[in-house]
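Lecture notes, unit on protein representations.

Consider one protein chain, 456 amino acids long.
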Amino acid sequence: MSSIEQASLSAFLEAHPEVDGVEAFVFDLAGAPKGKWLARDKAMSVDAKGLPIPLSIFAQDAWGCDVAEAGLAFGTGDPDGVGYPVSGRFALVPWLEGAMAQAFLTLRDGSGAPADADPRGALEAILGRYAARGLTPVVAVELEFYLYRLEQGVPVPPDGAGAASWRRNETLSTSTLATHKRLIDEILHCAHAIGIPADGVISEAGPGQFELNILHRPDALAMADDAMLLRRIVRGLAQKHGFGATFMAKPYGEASGSGMHIHASVNDASGANVLADAMTGGPAPTLFHAVAGLVAAMPETMLAFAPNANSFRRFRPDAHAPVSAGWGHDDRSAAIRVIDGSKVGGGAKATRIEHRISGADANAYLALGAMLGAMLQGIEAGAMPPPPQDPLNPGAGEPLPIEWGAAIERFAASDKAAGIFGSRLVDIIVACKRQDRAAFLSHIDRFEYDTYLALL
């Protein structure tokens, strides 16, 4: 994937006369790209006219089926929104045959405002509330994933080492990175070509598991775009290199899960971090107000961080996936880790909050929106959090709903979630996830038969 910094799609196409087609897309509720393939001539007009896309793509279940209860498809005429290209996110796509380019879109309704059902638009609105207070969140993301091969339809580690793979902890293994150097190099090259500030890759604990770090940005909307586009790049290039890549939260029951840790600070109009004390560089009262908002909202907004059936397999005691709404000073067992810049180096700019709940499978717009929205609720209320957790007793905070159905219903009834996202988007998300869950409850797998068929 290569790119030239162009503000418009038409300018990018003029700079790339070899391009004969464009894949234009948005990301749906599940984080899947949805859109259209356009001939070059048609794509040249998208800057000015936009591209009609049905709003109902934001009201589909995990299999792409319409969700009637969301109220966007049936009985509405299934109206279109209009997608407009996001500046600077144009690129050639190396995993597609021919000279194909991509154009990432943002979807607007008939009035030109962000569509009510669009998670990207919801994050844009949340950031508008920060801007109205003269504040700008600064965010960074750590995104984990697995490479795999398929054997008889089942994912297995990419090195083909069989049972030996499960006994190895590959955290920070440089030999594992060397094995996949060509793929990693291409991922980073493609990321940089479309403006994603990916600054490195590490090998994680699981067999074939890696973590990509995206450097902090004073633009949370661009950071969410980065995370979503990076997932697309990783999957596309892995396939080109003969692998699968998955951001499932827990692809293997016996190996570590994949998370999406989010780091955040907040700058004022002068660029000073309001979460840090100007004199010491350590945490300021505003940081603790933000933590209070996070702790209070977390049980009700869990669905934004763990949206799928598989998401909840990550949450186990002593598994670096917290099961309670607690916080701690530089405590990686806590859901919220407070990092003191005066102690870790970097001073006030490095004082920040790390949110450690979200799975890699989460929609980045909803995960960042839930985090930043809750922080703002705490800041506006001037609330103070409960005492930090004891690292020897990390489950002492309010228990999180670590079962999918419970998380859906907590989200559905939450005034905090409605205050962050708006009640309309909450209703759409809940309708989609209820339909997903109903489908899973109707499916009986082989393990269930093996356990109960002859026993009962």
